[in-house]
Design brief:
The complex is a heterodimer of chains A (131) and B (808). With 131 residues, chain A is α+β, with helices and mostly antiparallel strands. Chain A is 25% helix and 35% strand. Chain A has a domain of 89 residues: Beta Barrel (OB fold (Dihydrolipoamide Acetyltransferase, E2P)). A five-stranded mixed barrel of chain A has the order 2-4-5-7-6. In chain A, β4 and β5 form a beta hairpin. With 808 residues, chain B is an alpha+beta fold. Chain B folds into five domains: 192 residues; 222 residues, no CATH class; 105 residues, no CATH class; 99 residues, no CATH class; 105 residues. In chain B, 49% of the residues lie in helices and 19% in strands. Chain B contains 20 helices and 24 strands. In chain B, strands 6, 7, 8, 9, 10 and 11 form a six-stranded antiparallel β-sheet that branches. In chain B, strands 15, 16, 17, 18, 19 and 20 form a six-stranded antiparallel β-sheet that branches. In chain B, a hairpin with a 3-residue loop joins β12 and β13. In chain B, α1 packs antiparallel against α6. The chains are: A alpha+beta (131), B alpha+beta (808).
């Protein structure tokens, strides 16, 4: 057996290790119901801003609270200990990484997807009134 | 119908050039094929002419689009979406390549420049290599074709008029002949994303796309090597191209990092974002490939791997194009492109070249010569080979983790081959995940860079090797001790080893260059590039591992909750930030930007006077489309940067004329409860009082009173009764005030379909409340090492390219 073969086998072993580690490190997208079932376990939840719930940012304690609805329609209060993201009201979709507690979902990280410029073409002023 | 005021000619010209580019690329590929199989000079002439026509067409496409953008012809969809009248002229380039179509054009532009160069210099490799070039260009040209075959969309054209886009077609305004004059929306474009209005965005994309384009030349030459069965001959021609690729792609990626550091607010130059990863991975494999080509040229071994790395690099460029442009990364990256409906076409493009390239490679695999003997353990080539494999595995780890959304698409619950009922999400802590692999890989690479410089090809005597090494080893050990003492690296053994490895790479290469190479030109390129790499690793390590968030307060919110990393700064109050005392001096509104002036002072220990150190003005870019976008401001010193960005500002809070803010709007029906500022607001009942005119029995006056029960945390009850009054056609409100809580309630509207009232609540802003900002400030020590390293690596690779071109 050539030395290079041994090296290649080692490399393949590391590659398999990388695959296994990635799958272990990967989280799963869940809804609030599953996050609620396992409190204190970290999940990634994709949802939308609940426009009916109150939204409040207290700059002094640096706590931002809002309501979210997940894709299954379950509502939950979300607490985020970071400043309120700019333009949060306009977000289309919110990806939240965090864990559930009895009273709220504690988000450690929030990613927002904002409406793309593409959609705004439809909102050109004026065309609806003209015939 | 005749439309008034449209400029259709440049658009038609653009479309014509796109079609011509596609056709001429196909003809060129075909003619090159015949010129190669029939060895006929006339075919070669046809092929060259076609490729030159293709080059001319691409330049024509570029010219047309530039003309449209600089003339502000907003009837064109691309111009409207990516520019506006008030866009400064220097950002017209950024606007040009902001969209997918423009960046495809940029990519094709570099391909034709490099292709023309290759055509006249490749000699015996010309025909087979140019077939590959022309085919790639044909695929790319089809991406901006923008034609429909039935319902099938082929490409997305930047020359489409707004009234012809699928989302607008059939809308009433498209039937108006003078729509351009009638509707204000067409007077001005929607503008460029404020994040891209940065000088780095003017130079980063062209360099990065030149880097992407440069990987095609070695790939085309490798393919030519397989076609012609001259399996080793192409290496010499491909060598300068591959080091050129390493240089340009590396520079482009790091410029992207510089942009992120200057203009984005995540605080750093690298975040393992999928889009960043997918351009880094081809650079890693190209670096491995270029080194393997070097091994082959000197020792005639490792040819299979050379082929593999060069081919895989180009395929990874296509894969990253697919990842960033097909919309598959939607959930996991903030800055991937929006899907234009080209994902199918992109997938075909990717699969075509994957199957073609790997198929040909496997077909020829057994015929590619390999060295009869194993490389010696003490030979340079063996360790360079190991290094390249480590690079390959490092690339594999990054691309595998980045591909989680793709794995989801294939094996996830809604996938083609559903193996898992769960939808995988990217790692929760991406930086930790990637670092756990990439730090060990970086250690091995940095050590190999140092060691391999002192080894000879074929065989090295142990005694000479150790004698040569000893000095570098001692110096770098001493240096590691010094640096780790200064920056306190003792706690983290992995960081400590990486620090040593990077310093070792730097020192050995300086030593090698000055002592062994005596500063000779042939040693210079590789030494400087490797010193640069070592500095990048050292700079990244120190600035990241030892970064200090000085706006952090030590108050913990709860046991497992990190302390507050953001400082609240009131106007003209001083706040302690690390060793500094900072004062927020106020906000300036200048041309759509809100600048927040912050002055940093240092405290003199002996007496408590403050000395002004520097001023920073992070700003919020206000834009109608994107809302306020934060832009950091950084103070640069030789040994550290102080990075500052505003995360929240009280100037953004809308305030009513009578001094109320924190607006909440909520729909309530009877018995519903809303929570507002730690109070329950319960809708108790609604009183309706209506009066009618005597003669016509029409509604004369409507008076609605909502009875609200407000309960605080102690259970104390308060009552508020906002009133909605409609008198004839006049609407008025009688707001209810709660003096203790400083609340104001308004019965805004009645929703008759859901039977709910629309309630608005505000809180009175405190009279003496000062404006404030919430700010994050981070100190990055020694980050200049990283930038110096980047420059050195680019210069070093440049010298290496020049050397290889000269030695051809």
């Amino acid at each position: 057996m050539k030395r290079t073969h041994i090296v290649i086998i080692l490399i393949i072993a590391v590659a398999i290790g990388a695959i296994i580690a990635t799958i272990n490190d990967a989280s799963t997208y869940v809804g609030f119901s599953e996050a609620n079932a396992n409190p204190n376990t970290t999940y990634t939840v994709i949802g939308y801003l609940d426009k009916d719930a109150s939204m409040n940012y207290d700059a002094r304690s640096n706590q931002f609270e809002f309501g979210a609805v997940d894709k299954e329609g379950i509502r939950k209060k979300v607490v985020y200990h970071q400043p309120k993201p700019q333009d949060f009201e306009r977000s289309e979709e919110i990806t939240m990484k965090g864990y559930s507690t009895d009273s709220a979902f504690v988000a450690k990280e929030i990613l927002m997807k904002c409406p793309s410029k593409y959609n705004e073409t439809n909102e050109l002023e004026g065309y609806q009134t003209y015939d | 119908m005749e439309y008034i005021g449209e400029h259709t000619l440049p658009g038609l010209a653009g479309r014509f050039f796109v079609s011509l580019a596609l056709v001429s690329a196909l003809i060129s590929a075909l003619a090159y094929y015949f010129s190669y199989t029939k060895k006929d000079k006339s075919y070669q002439k046809l092929a060259r002419t076609s490729f030159l026509i293709h080059t001319g067409s691409i330049i024509g496409v570029v010219a047309c689009l530039f003309y449209l953008m600089t003339s502000h012809y907003f009837e064109y969809d691309y111009v409207w979406k990516h520019s506006s009248l008030d866009l400064p002229g220097k950002y017209i380039f950024s606007a040009f390549w902001e969209g997918q179509e423009g960046s495809f054009i940029l990519w094709m532009f570099w391909h034709v420049i490099l292709g023309t160069l290759l055509m006249y210099t490749a000699r015996k490799w010309e025909a087979p290599a140019m077939i590959v070039f022309a085919l790639v260009q044909a695929f790319l040209a089809s991406m901006i074709l923008g034609v429909y075959l039935g319902d099938l969309k082929i490409g997305s054209s930047p020359f489409v008029l707004m009234r012809n886009t699928p989302e607008n077609i059939g809308l009433p305004w498209t039937q108006v002949s003078d729509y351009l004059e009638k509707f204000p929306a067409f007077m001005d474009g929607s503008g460029l994303n404020p994040l891209l209005q940065n000088y780095w965005m003017t130079i980063h994309p062209p360099v990065l796309f030149l880097g992407f384009a440069s990987t095609l030349a070695p790939f085309a030459l490798a393919m030519a090597g397989l076609f012609t069965r001259d399996y080793g001959g192409w290496v010499k021609t491909a060598l300068p191209w591959s080091f050129f690729s390493v240089m340009i792609l590396g520079t482009g990626i790091l410029m992207g990092g510089a942009w992120a550091y200057e203009a984005l607010s995540f605080g750093g130059f690298w975040a393992w974002d999928p889009v960043e990863n997918s351009s880094l991975v081809p650079w890693i494999t190209m670096t491995g490939g270029a080194h393997l080509l070097l091994v082959y040229r000197n020792r005639k071994t490792g040819l299979h791997w050379s082929f593999f790395m060069v081919i895989v690099t180009f395929l990874l460029i296509l894969y990253s194009t697919f990842l960033t442009r097909s919309g598959v990364l939607g959930d996991s990256s903030v800055h991937a492109f929006v899907d234009l409906g080209l994902s199918g076409q992109l997938l075909i493009y990717l699969l075509f070249f994957v199957i073609l390239a790997l198929g040909i490679f496997i077909y020829h695999f057994r015929k590619i010569p390999s060295a009869p003997k194993d490389d010696e353990l003490s030979s340079k080539e063996f360790w360079m080979f190991i290094g390249s494999l480590v690079l390959l595995i490092s690339a594999f780890q990054i691309i595998f983790s980045t591909s989680i959304p793709v794995i989801n698409k294939v094996f996830g619950p809604e996938g083609i081959l559903s193996l898992s009922d769960k939808k995988l999400a990217p790692p929760l802590e991406p930086i930790k995940h990637y670092n756990s692999f990439q730090i060990p890989f970086a250690i091995v690479i940095a050590l190999l860079i140092g060691i391999a410089q002192w080894l000879n090809y074929k065989h090295t005597k142990g005694k000479t090797f150790f004698k040569r090494m000893l000095r570098s080893l001692v110096i770098s050990l001493l240096l590691t001790l010094g640096v780790s003492y200064w920056f306190e690296f003792w706690q983290e053994p992995l960081y400590l080893i990486l620090l040593f490895a990077s310093l070792f790479a730097i020192i050995t290469n300086i030593d090698y260059w000055l002592i062994l190479g005596k500063g000779k030109m042939s040693f210079t390129g590789s030494s400087i590039a490797h010193i640069g790499f070592g500095l990048i690793i050292a700079g990244a390590l120190i600035s990241n591992a030892k970064q200090k968030i000085i706006s952090r307060s030590d108050v913990f919110l709860s046991e497992d909750m990190p302390s507050n990393e953001h400082a609240l700064m009131e106007l003209s109050d001083s706040t302690r930030l690390g060793n500094y005392v900072a004062v927020f001096n106020g906000m300036r509104d200048e041309g759509g930007k809100q600048f927040y002036d912050v002055t940093y002072y240092s405290r003199q220990d002996s007496n408590s006077t403050l000395k002004e150190e520097f001023r920073l003005s992070p700003f919020l870019q206000m834009s109608d489309n994107m809302g306020p976008t934060p832009n950091p401001s950084t103070a640069h010193f030789w040994n550290r940067d102080i990075y500052t960005h505003v995360t929240y500002s009280s100037y953004l809070e809308p305030e009513t004329d009578d001094g109320y803010r924190s607006e909440m709007e909520v729909d309530l029906s009877r018995g519903d409860t809303a929570i507002y500022q730690d109070h329950f607001v319960i809708m108790d009942s609604l009183r309706i009082k209506a009066s009618y005119t005597e003669d016509t029995r029409e509604l004369a006056k409507l008076r609605l009173t909502a009875k609200l029960r407000v309960v605080n945390v102690f259970g104390e009850e308060f009552w508020a009764e906002p009133v909605y009054v409609l008198e004839g056609n006049t609407l008025s409100f009688e707001d209810a005030f709660l003096d203790d809580q400083k609340f104001k309630f308004r019965l805004e509207d009645i929703n008759t379909t859901t039977n709910k009232i629309v309630l608005k609540a505000w809180t009175q802003a405190k009279k003496d409340e000062k404006p404030f900002i919430v700010m994050k400030a981070i100190v990055f020590p020694m980050i200049n090492l990283l930038w110096i390293g980047c420059i050195l690596m680019a210069i070093g690779s440049g010298i290496a390219v020049w050397q290889r071109v000269k030695n051809r």
